Structure prediction request, 1278 residues.
Amino acid sequence: MTRLAHGGLINRARTLSFRFDGKSYTGHPGDTLASALLANGVRLMGRSFKYHRPRGVFTAGSEEPNALVELRAGARREPNTRATTIELFEGLEAQSQNRWPSLDHDLLSVNRYLSPFLGAGFYYKTFMWPAAFWEKLYEPAIRRAAGLGAAAALPDPDTYEKAFAFCDVLVIGSGPAGLAAALAAGRAGARVILAEEDFRLGGRLLTEQAAIDGAPARDFVSRAEAELASLAHVRIMPRTTVFGVYDGGEYAAVERVSDHLAVPAPFQPRQRLWRIIAKRAVLAAGAFDRPIVFPGNDRPGVMTAQALATYACRYGVGAGATAAVFTNNDAGVAAALATAGAGVKLEALIDVRPALPAPLAAKAKALGVRVITSGEVIATSGKLLTGLTVRSPAGTETLAVEALGISGGATPNLNLTCHLGGKPVYREDLAAFVPATLPPGLAVAGAVAGQFSLADCLAYGTAEGVRAAADAGFTAPTLPAPQAEETATGIQPFWQVKAKGDLAFVDLQNDVSAKDVGIAHKEGFRAVELLKRYTTLGMATDQGKTSNMAGLALMAELTGQGIAATGTTLFRPPYTPVALGVLAGHHRDKDFRPTRPTPTHDWAQRQGAVFVETGFWLRAAYFPKPGEKDWLESVNREVNATRSACGVIDVSTFGKIDLQGPDVGIFLDRVYINMFSTLAVGKARYGVMLREDGLVMDDGTTARLGEQHYVMTTTTANAGKMFQHLEFCLQVLWPDLDVQIASVSEQWAQIAVSGPRSRAVLAQVVDGADVSNAALPFMGVLQTTVMGGVEARVFRLSFSGELGYEIAVPARHGAALMEALMAAGAPFGITPYGTEALGVLRIEKGHVSGSELNGQTSARDLGLGRMASTKKDYIGRVLSQRPAFLDPDRPMFVGFKPVDRSARLKAGAHLLPPGAEATTAHDEGYMTSVAYSPTLGHSIGLGFLKRGAARIGEQVRAFDPVRGGDILVEVCSPAFVDPEGEKQRV
Amino acid sequence: MSDLLAQVPVTRLPPEGHYGPAGTEGVRARALEGLAAATLAARKGGTGALIARLTAAGLPLVDGPKVLFHEGLTVLGTGPGRWLVFAENTTGPALLAQLRALAGDDVALTDQSDANLVFELTGPAVRDALAKGVALDLDPRAFAPGDVATTVVAHVGVTLWACEGAPTYRLAVARSFAPALLRWLTPGAAPFGFALSGTGRG
Amino acid sequence: MRIPCPYCGARDAHEFAYLGDATVSRPDPAAPDAEDAFFTYAYLRDNPDGEHREYWYHANGCRQWLVVTRNTRTHEILGASLARASEVTA
Ligand SMILES: [Zn+2]
Prediction:
């Protein structure tokens, strides 16, 4: 046990039990999994990516490269979670990753003897040949041997949600600069959101030994938190990582609502995705302690000096029974002193510099810490760290320690400043990249800006908080900045110990060593972005937060260019890995997208309908009857009933647009290829609309209800698009036209009744209106009432080719109308039909639908060229007259029958001359729609064939290499049923 | 998907009742019954004249995203020269006649009485629940009683307006999208305690 | 990204549908060079670096077509006006 006797922000009065790799341990509230494991003496937490070297915890935060574990079990198992950020909870269960069969005895650790072959670029060099081996051999082997954890294969039992937040000032990070900024902005009256990734506010203040306003730094955190919590317009969001910066002051964040619990509380999500829209933001994300590269710097027990201090001060844990610190900077020294002060036995403080600043030297002396100046760690020993070899002017000595804190300096955590393209600049005086160009509205304060001292953090944090609030319009006076003792920030840049021996790692997560950087240099992959891709340095879950600096410093040394010229790779969102579940939020399973029921949905369900999704709509596809052996039998029955007696279908899903105003007629003339201004009141007309490029956009019928009042129908699929198009025409193209449009798609339920008996059925539901052929002829419109006073519009239209009507009633009456029609039609055998039968009926009739209006066909191609008026201009007219559109060789709309009538046609088949080779050069067209026609007793098809109409009676080959179809078909008129159109006019 | 609605068909409104921790009622939603509705649009260039005419008739119409209440009418600005009107205790045709009488012949009127469902949402946590999908700043400083917004929530278009009193909003949603909207709202409101009424047995 | 709709106020870009270049206008169909002009209108677009005027439709809002001025390099939205009211020049 290495739990220190006292100290730490943990609740020692309570004990939590947890399991790691099947073994039971205990910890306390306030612990992370990493601190609790260290407190139990567990230093081995994982195996490395390529070489399966033993690895321990390296940091105390979300930048952790090593201690990745699978958290929880079963359906909730989550791979690659960082032990350093997992809050301990009762019953926590975690497993180590990337080891086999066990963490302690990993057989794949032989990989380390293969290290000469697994160096930089090994993917590209080793597994080149033969190609088939990649999929079958190399990749599965690599995946087993290398890589990260495995995700659960079961559906996630938890829920996720999204939320929006708006504020004047978003403060990211709650260290000294963040707290100061939040206080300043909050006191000014601004709406503030303070987002902190940790479960506890304070950042470095939780470890800081210097005083603020004369009191311990932790007291300042408590006071600040209490004051912020008391301000109604300030929202504190712990456990919330801001992971992306987007245009317009928008920030994305994940709040881990329930990750610190075994299972989420009832009704609570596991995580919440926030989109925060902030007028101003202050980024106070602090800095990371970065490693120094030296042989064997990856042994479990080696960690950043800040992590060593954090475990000691915040968690009351000694990362080892004995420890040392190796550094080149004052913050590293301060961390060593904090560690010693917390009660960890510090064997030595090794500093590469010839001397420490006097105040730090005095403090070290006071604490009895041995300081080795001009010292370097040149080797480590033990499977878990047991000793160091230190080289100094005094000679070489070995130290027995279980923990080593290393600090190569502070790397500002400026990830978010790059998300909109900002490029950091290198400051030689700080040996660090700092933000240069910032996203609009975002300021930086504290260590992220290179303001490393505590006093600077507080002062700049306050200043940026005041400024952000003022920019958002809040200028109330605020209190002076909190005052702190000055903390030293000196550094002597030092990246790598020159010594031979074990591998010296640059990137622990990806097992990239100094040697790999050398290989990349030698082989010409010198630019930082190439270095990253070639060696994988800075990839994967940590994105090189702790490793990038050393990597590019080493490269800079090899090229002799200097760090500033070498530059750094660009950071992109997300800052830390984000679960896909939280990005989906509510939209999963049945709620993946909205489902729109038709007005007769419940009725159809009672009839046993099988439904199909068409866009958001759920429509009845067919209505199976007991004893029917498959869907085709049901569809055939529905088609036959409609052709012989009467069928009924809900067509409410069509787009319906109400048009009013003195210029509607002119307007319709301009958007349709045919004339509508001449349409008589009480009549409907089929129309076709083109895009400006001359291709067909949509079709449908438009009826004239009054002198200045029309109602248009669009296809179901294009309802929204057509409304948008009409608005474009009215607002942009012809704002002079006086036309008002409104969508009435939801207002009206519409039911089509088709078949020879449909008039008799209709006559029974209308309130006495004359629906005879004379009173309501084909394409006539009747405004009347039905079912005893329900307002109705009856359109005599036919998609099936039979006598037919579409009856529209206000939506709430849709189901009642359906019931009334069914009752009225019962004596005739009225039959409900679905979209499948609808498709068969229209294919038999040769009516075009979505498969034909596919964005590649002109009105002429569809055989509708004669509809186009020559007396007016309309959208698409000019370009539809281009020579290519008038080419007689263009594929034209025709029908097809299989020569062998028992054969089945397939949509998508290409049409070739019989006997011709199946090459693109011989391609003469394609089949768009096929159906089994119960009326004809065989398969029929529609499609487009070169010089189609002129080739009726010819035979062509329908070739479908994808599904293996290759049959002869006979070209025929697309109207298989009633080509003269007499049935619909009776 | 939340387990809360696992047994509710996606095509139905969730049944009325209490969702979430017992004894809490942070959000209440009620489906309003029997509203007639119509869209009112000015003729080209006629917005000014229409506003003048209606103002003279005691209905000071505003050409903007504002709501005004007048003798049982709720008039919502939905676009330049366009309004959506709801009326209690009347029918669509009667509402059209009433508006015709007020506005005269030179406007476009369209019955929408069956196009939307309207819900009233209230309760101390109503803003927190709405924030889970409404990308609008609902703070009273930004969206005060009288303000209207047509927006999209969880892929569903809605028109939302703020009412007087304790945080109260009304929300109109297209009839066929209402189940999807409540499937979004219910799990988001449940943590606060959600009382849903007016949807019957779903 | 947020677009300042003149009617609705600043709204999330997801509420809008994008069409593109607002500096082109529909040619005179009766002009002798109509076919060439329509070809250009239908197919040819500049891809300017910097400020650009674009049509956006507030589909999930006031259903107005807007002319939005956007910097194509920075995505900064410099303003938006109703297309109906704007003077669009070629
Ligand atoms: Zn708008």
Chain B has four helices and twelve strands.
